[in-house]
Amino acid sequence: MLPTDPKKAAQLGKAWGEVLAESIFGVADVLRDGKNMKAAANSKAQQQNATVAAKNTVTRAKNEAKLKEQQEAAYMNMSHAEREAYKKIQQEQRVSSTVKKSQDDEMIGIGHILLIITIVLAIFGGMFFGAVSLGLIHR
């Protein structure tokens, strides 16, 4: 029922006006602030990623130090012949990694050369097709 008292009717109208204004403009505020919310979420995700990366770096350093200690302890317990064999294996690994890196670099260079050749051929093919379509070159 509608109130008959003018003061109660004014209060009811004010309340309904606030509800309508909030429902209409509240949606607009959410849409306007959506970009800010997305940026805040991205910032939070980046911060969490940075924290995890820092923890991983610390863990990796600890594990590398522990592994190096174990290798040094094992090296101390080796006989002279085992140490020489270990040094030889280490040297072969260094050489093989250097050779692999140079081969990878060479393959990357070959890939770049092939890419450039493909682009040049595509340009000349396009020019030839354009010349044929314009009638500048007859078959």
| Average pLDDT | 85
What is the multimeric organization of the chains shown?
single chain
Largest pleated sheet: none
Counting H and I runs of at least 4 residues, what is the number of helices? 2
> Can you write the helix and strand succession as a string?
HH
Which strand-content bin applies to the residues?
A: under 5%
Low-confidence stretches: none
What can be said about this structure in brief?
This protein is mainly α. It is 91% helix and 0% strand.
Please explain how this structure is put together.
The protein has 139 residues and is mainly alpha-helical. It has helices at 6-76, 80-134. It is flat.
Tell me the layout of helices and strands:
Blueprint: H1 6-76, H2 80-134
Characteristic terms for this protein:
single chain, 0% strand, mainly alpha, 139 residues, flat
